[in-house]
């Protein structure tokens, strides 16, 4: 019995014999009752906005337009990521490295001056005030 439709009564439809045989084979292939198979078919057409009279296969031009739109969308996303994430991050890292290089130079100079003062003290020389 079909779930959710147990209490409904049956109606008869008049269809040609060849169509009925073909539909019976299709129902067996779908492994469902005739009512449920027909309901699934109707739902499919309604949900996808299709008509049995129209061709489903899209034209090459339609696919090309869709592909170009998606590619343009991907390009826009990548440019946005580059603009708002990658470039600012690179700029911050470069600024940090530049500051690190600048701050290293005075430390080295101070160390050299300190070592010179230590050597002068060891040699009993008079320290220069610099």
Biggest β-sheet: count, sense, barrel?
Answer: none
Mean pLDDT: 80
Radius of gyration from the CA trace?
Answer: 40 Å
Helix percent band: over 70%
Taking the alpha carbons of the first and last residues, their distance comes to 102 Å
Query: How does the overall form come out from the CA principal axes?
Result: rod-shaped
Number of strands: 0
Class by alpha and beta content = mainly alpha
Tell me the strand percentage band. Answer: under 5%
Name the helix and strand elements from N-terminus to C-terminus, one letter apiece: HHH
**Which stretches of 5+ consecutive residues score pLDDT under 50?**
none
- Helix count, per DSSP? 3
Describe, in short, the structure shown:
This protein has 130 residues and is mainly alpha-helical.
Describe, in plain words, how this protein is organized in 3D.
The protein has about 130 residues and is mainly α. The chain has three helices and no strands. The chain has helices at about 15-30, 35-45, 60-120. The longest helix is centred in the last third of the chain and has 63 residues, at about 60-120. It is rod-shaped. The mean pLDDT is about 80.
Key features?
130 residues; mainly alpha; 3 helices; rod-shaped
Secondary-structure blueprint of this entry?
Elements: H1 17-30, H2 34-47, H3 60-122
């Amino acid at each position: 019995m079909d779930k959710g439709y147990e209490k409904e009564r049956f109606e008869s439809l008049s269809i040609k014999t060849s169509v009925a045989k073909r539909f019976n084979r299709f129902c067996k292939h779908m492994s469902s009752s005739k009512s449920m198979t027909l309901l699934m078919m109707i739902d499919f057409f309604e949900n996808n906005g299709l008509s049995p009279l129209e061709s489903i296969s899209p034209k090459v031009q339609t696919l090309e337009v869709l592909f170009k739109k998606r590619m343009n969308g991907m390009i826009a996303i990548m440019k946005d990521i580059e603009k708002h994430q990658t470039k600012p991050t690179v700029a911050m890292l470069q600024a940090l490295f530049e500051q690190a290089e600048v701050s290293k130079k005075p430390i080295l100079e101070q160390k050299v001056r300190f070592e010179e003062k230590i050597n002068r003290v060891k040699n009993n020389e008079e320290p220069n005030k610099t």
